[in-house]
Design goal:
Elements: E1 6-12, E2 45-50, H1 58-61, E3 64-66, E4 86-91, E5 94-98, E6 103-108, E7 114-118, E8 149-156, E9 162-166, H2 172-179, E10 197-203, E11 208-214, E12 241-247, H3 257-272, E13 279-285, H4 296-304, E14 310-315, H5 324-342
Parallel strand pairs: 1-3, 2-4, 9-11, 9-12, 12-13, 13-14
Antiparallel strand pairs: 1-8, 2-7, 5-6, 5-8, 10-11
Length: 343
């Protein structure tokens, strides 16, 4: 059930290779000069942002990252090979924090942005470097330096455009699967979604990515720990849009529109009532299960009058792809205008 948005890892750069003590020997030159080569530099550890990664799950299973050591120098003035650099890929929007210093080192906000997190150890020098007019046979070298090592926290700053809320089995997972590139497993459990699901759609107006986050279904008293709780709602703090997805096929059987909205809105307000100030749309889902959904429109409009923060509503069928194209166009236009307004 955990969405991996924060993890602690250990990084260690490679040690520099040691310098070599060696003297050239040949059949007719038994006392040749020094020819011990230098070591190689230790490998660096870099962290880079990759927009194709959306969580830190992999770091939960592996938290030690070590770059290669530089190789030692050899005779005949041969330099040891540099240690291979290690590049760690993290999601776009990852904040890197030095745990021991309690200091933010960098926030990776651009795709392919790269940051040197641990510098490899400097190479050791072979005895060829210490020959002089007064010391022609130096028995001196230096040892390669140790690489830097750090304990760091990776904290994902999710940039969510749209947050999806609804009761269990309202069709949220089917909706996000249909409208985005995400592939999810859909089952008719009491809690269909047990962990956040992040989907991505492309805004054709400016070719930007639109991120959609589906969180576990809300039930009455979720704030007090019933069901899966409301901890996942923290990701909605910076989103631009909130969708309420309501199963329209059952509102006249188990709930009415007001009761469903009241459950969702009351639970949200207990967690953070400022979320109710965001742009909010209602998606009435599963209209394919109704013989004549249009007769509900006038009823819906009357019900929504008292919910002044609800700006728009849509009748869709995620399963049969009804109304999804119109919704996609409206999403693209709204976010495109919002982005240009900010600039």
């Amino acid at each position: 059930m955990k969405f991996f948005d924060e993890v602690i890892i250990y990084v260690k750069a490679g040690k520099g290779g040691d310098g070599c003590i060696s003297f050239y020997r040949a059949r007719f030159l038994p006392k040749g000069g020094p020819d011990g080569g230098n070591g190689g530099n230790g490998g660096n550890v870099y962290i880079t942002a990759n927009h194709n990664i959306n969580n830190l799950k992999n770091f939960h299973y592996k938290n030690n990252y070590i770059a290669d050591n530089g190789l030692n120098g050899q005779n005949r003035k041969r330099t040891g090979k540099n240690g291979k650099n290690l590049i760690i890929q993290v999601p776009l929007g990852t904040k890197i924090i030095d745990v021991e210093k309690n200091m933010i080192l960098v926030s990776l906000l651009k795709n392919n942005q790269i940051f040197l997190i641990a510098k490899g150890g400097k190479k050791g020098l072979g005895n060829i470097n210490f020959k002089s007019s007064i010391n022609r046979t130096p028995y001196k070298r230096t040892i390669g330096d140790l690489g830097e090592k750090k304990k760091i926290k990776l904290k994902l700053i999710l940039k969510i455009n749209i947050g999806i809320l609804g009761l269990p089995n309202s069709g949220k997972s089917t909706f996000i699967k249909n409208i985005s590139s995400i592939k999810t497993k859909i089952n008719n459990y009491i809690f269909t979604t047990t962990k956040p699901i992040l989907g991505i759609i492309k805004n054709k107006l400016d070719n930007s990515n639109i991120s959609i986050l589906d969180v576990p279904g809300i039930i009455k008293n979720s704030f007090f720990g019933r069901g899966l709780g409301l901890d996942f709602i923290k990701y909605f703090k910076y989103c631009n849009l909130i969708f309420y997805i309501i199963d329209i096929s059952i509102i006249n059987i188990k709930y009415n529109i007001s009761n469903t909205l009241n459950i969702i809105c009351n639970e949200i307000s207990k967690y953070d009532n400022t979320l109710l100030l965001k742009e909010q749309w209602i998606i009435f889902n599963k209209i394919d299960l109704l013989h004549n959904p249009n007769y509900l429109i006038s009823c819906i409009k009357k019900k929504l009058i008292k919910y002044q923060y609800i700006k728009k509503f849509y009748l869709v069928s995620s399963k049969n792809n009804i109304g999804i194209k119109k919704l996609y166009i409206d999403i693209s236009n709204y976010l495109y205008k919002l982005k240009n307004k900010k600039h």
